[in-house]
Specification:
Number of helices: 8
CATH architecture of the largest domain: Roll
CATH class of the largest domain: Alpha Beta
Number of strands: 15
Distance between the termini: 50 Å
Strand content: 25-35%
Structural class: alpha+beta
Length: about 350
Amino acid sequence: MKRTTRYHSYGAALLAAVLLLLTFSCAKEKATGSNDNSRLYFESWMKVHYPEVKPTGLGVYIIEDTPGQGETLTDDDAFIFIRYTATDLEGTITGTTEEDVDKQLGNYSQSNYYGEEIFANSSENTSAGLVELVKGMKVGGTRKGVIPGWLNVSEQYSTEQEYLDNCTGSDMICTVTLTGKTDDIYKWEIDTLERFAARYMGGVDSTEFGYYYKQLREPDDTASIRTDSTICINYVGRLMDGKVFDTTIEDTAKVWGIYSPSKQYAPVYISLAAEYPDITMSSTESGEGSTMVDGFSYCLSNMKKNEKGIVAFYSVYGYGTNGKGSIPKYAPISFEIELVPKPEE
């Protein structure tokens, strides 16, 4: 069920009256832009609900502000780490990073990621209104702001008028908590991997930039497996906080709350290849396989018969700047991989 905010009939009547007044006062002016009606409604809404709040230079209205105690966000910080909940002007939630919120709404899904998300601190890649909302915040702080639709776009202009002339979007009320920031996202990933390696991998060093491997069980044979072979593996995929996001093992899936009755939990078949990006995975030996992220397939290309190990790598070898499902953007990830006998063996 969607959650909405019901306004008192007096507020609705006042909004209608203000809108009528503004419409009348502008009736003699010729419409000049696609946002004329949207701006008229937005300004009317603000006059009713937050008449005393003044906009920022770009046109965002900050209605609540709880300062943090951490470092101040600056333009030199290329990326921001945030948690947020967004609604439309009627109070219907349109997006959230909070698991509890989605559960309350009945929108919870195991395939969704919940937790802090990483955004570029630039309107070229992130909503200009969001970038404006967090400007000057300190880490640990929380702000709530109203963002007009023409600023709720990933475009780079200098003034609100330029956004009004060129952009359209949906009005949004956003509550955001700034949990971190960085001027170098890949350094942040490597630092995160180093901490993970120290905790779960015995402090192994990377074998190449952004890639770590620790052997957990020695192979039966040190000879490389032929590249035209098909092997079987079990695996467990984890985020850097240890949370499991995928596995072939049923009990593990149940423990971590990601079990799906529609999924077959069993070892999967790996068709090796001369080049690791061409390695494929399938649920059956004769089935059509799909490729994997580079860090996973590269690890498989170097494993031997009956070997077991744990690999961790940065997002360049994983799901990159987009993420996928329960894996967020710029996420280093890890897999525990075990080569096992084929079922018929």
